[in-house]
């Protein structure tokens, strides 16, 4: 073991340990099988919008029509029903139900409560032309909004044909068909479409689940590797050839790179699936809205944030797992430590899920700064666009500081624990090792 004050370069020993750990993990059958399984699941998740499009073709969309004139309501409903059953693809597979509403406010309330998918408000301008406003709920797709707009245009044409011979007036003018979302999501203080918000949530779920799984699995691999080396007495040879600092850095770097390799191997097929699912849907279902909104939630900055939080989060948790593994000599004892160690990550994961739903904003904001939780929560907040630049800087700064402090403590505990065989150090001994006594 390196004496205090002696020069302790990381290279080449740390590099040798990292190379060994990386090769051992990547070439294992468990790594290959788990990568294949997780990549398959990621592709299935990526194709969820495609499956939704397939199911959506047979769903029923309810449109409520409201106007001050009951005759105008009836006229609009007749025109909409004709257009919506004749212009939808495949002979009307995308079914619509058009109902009268009592008032514009009442129709809007039906949309906000989810009882209707959209409300078409019809008004007659002073010139006698018709003007429309379509208030769409979160559950209606862009293609069906277009069908309603076509129906509104047809309504205006019929109204003009019927009205001009009896009333006269100016020539036909294209009707104003305004659209707005009712009760839609907001990101960064600005309203966004339901499709974009869904895209951001899908990206957030994929990133958070991937980080959680890899942190816990590879963190346990770090601890299990230390225990296995202690059990086989290899540790005695390793600690005589390299310092505790070199061993810890090598293990964390090697296994961390293995985790990053697996993450990339999982994400690449998922991104390919996202890229091809829209052309595939158009080929199978015909023209319609994009079924690949998940790509809209991706950006270079967000991918960079994922890599950064993944790397820093793994380093932090791996240091904890390495020091914990050095304190036990049997795999059975390590299993007893698994749940308490995993609880830290589980708490962060749960808060990230809550953040995706927009709940507990004050506490979630605080949790996104806490180093043990920020890889989950701050990344989730970034995906749904609710973060100021200074918050990201603060989050990274605290995370780096936590890694620095944890590294010093973990190396001390590791150096004291790796040579303990057949005994469990007490709390006083662990605290003493952490304080360098």
Give a verbal description of the structure.
By secondary structure, this protein is α/β, with parallel strands linked by helices. It has 2 domains: 13-46 and 193-434, no CATH class; 58-184, 3-Layer(aba) Sandwich (abc type-2 transporter like fold), CATH 3.40.1710. 67% of the residues lie in helices and 9% in strands. It has helices at residues 13-26, 29-46, 48-56, 70-86, 89-92, 104-113, 142-167, 194-231, 234-241, 244-285, 300-325, 331-357, 361-367, 374-383, 389-417, 427-434; strands at residues 60-67, 95-100, 118-124, 130-136, 176-181, 186-187, 190-191. The strands form 2 sheets. A 5-stranded mixed β-sheet has the order 2-1-3-4-5, with helices on both faces. Strands 6-7 form a two-stranded antiparallel sheet. It is elongated and about 100 Å long. The protein starts with 12 loop residues before the first helix and ends with a helix. The relative contact order is 0.11.
Q: Helix count?
A: 16
What proportion of the residues is helical, as a percent range? 55-70%
Mean pLDDT: 76
The secondary structure category is: alpha/beta
Tally of separate domains: 2
| Gross geometry | elongated
Q: What oligomeric state best describes the polypeptide chains here? A: single chain
From N to C, what is the helix and strand string?
HHHEHHEHEEHEEEHHHHHHHHH
* Gyration radius over CA: 30 Å
């Amino acid at each position: 073991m390196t004496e205090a004050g002696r020069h302790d370069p990381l290279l080449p020993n740390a590099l040798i340990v990292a190379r060994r750990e990386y090769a051992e993990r990547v070439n294992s059958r468990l790594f290959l099988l788990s990568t294949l399984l997780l990549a398959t699941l990621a592709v299935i998740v990526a194709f969820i919008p495609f499956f939704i499009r397939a199911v959506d073709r047979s769903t029923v969309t309810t449109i409520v029509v409201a106007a001050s004139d009951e005759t105008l309501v009836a006229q609009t409903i007749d025109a909409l029903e004709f257009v919506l059953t004749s212009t939808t693809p495949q002979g009307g597979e995308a079914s619509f139900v058009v109902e009268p509403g009592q008032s514009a406010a009442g129709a809007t309330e039906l949309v906000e409560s989810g009882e209707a998918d959209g409300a078409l408000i019809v008004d007659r301008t002073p010139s006698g032309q018709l003007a429309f406003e379509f208030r769409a709920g979160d559950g209606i797709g862009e293609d069906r909004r277009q069908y309603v707009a076509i129906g509104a245009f047809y309504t205006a044409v019929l109204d003009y044909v019927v009205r001009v011979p009896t009333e006269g007036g100016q020539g036909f003018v294209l009707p104003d068909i305004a659209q707005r979302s009712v009760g839609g999501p907001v990101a960064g203080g600005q309203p966004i479409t339901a499709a974009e918000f869904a895209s951001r949530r899908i990206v957030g779920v994929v990133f958070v689940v991937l980080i959680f799984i890899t942190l816990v699995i590879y963190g346990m691999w770090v601890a299990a590797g230390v225990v296995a080396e202690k059990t086989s007495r290899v540790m005695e040879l390793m600690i005589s050839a390299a310092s505790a600092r070199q061993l810890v850095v090598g293990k964390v770097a090697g296994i961390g790179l293995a985790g990053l390799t697996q993450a990339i191997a999982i994400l690449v097929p998922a991104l390919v699936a996202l890229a091809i699912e829209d052309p595939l849907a158009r080929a199978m279902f015909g023209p319609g809205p994009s079924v690949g909104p998940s790509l809209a939630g991706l950006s270079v900055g967000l991918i960079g944030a994922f890599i950064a939080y993944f790397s820093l989060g793994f380093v932090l948790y791996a240091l904890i797992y390495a020091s914990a593994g050095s304190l036990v000599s049997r795999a059975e004892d390590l299993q007893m430590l698994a749940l308490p160690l995993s609880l830290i990550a589980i708490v962060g994961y749960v808060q990230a899920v809550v953040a995706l739903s927009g709940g507990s904003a004050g506490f979630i904001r605080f949790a996104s700064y806490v180093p043990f939780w920020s890889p989950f929560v701050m990344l989730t907040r970034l995906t749904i666009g609710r973060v100021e630049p200074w918050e990201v800087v603060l989050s990274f700064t605290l995370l780096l500081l936590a890694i620095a402090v944890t590294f010093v403590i973990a190396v001390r505990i590791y150096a004291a624990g790796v040579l303990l065989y057949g005994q469990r150090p007490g709390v006083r001994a662990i605290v003493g090792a952490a304080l360098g006594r």
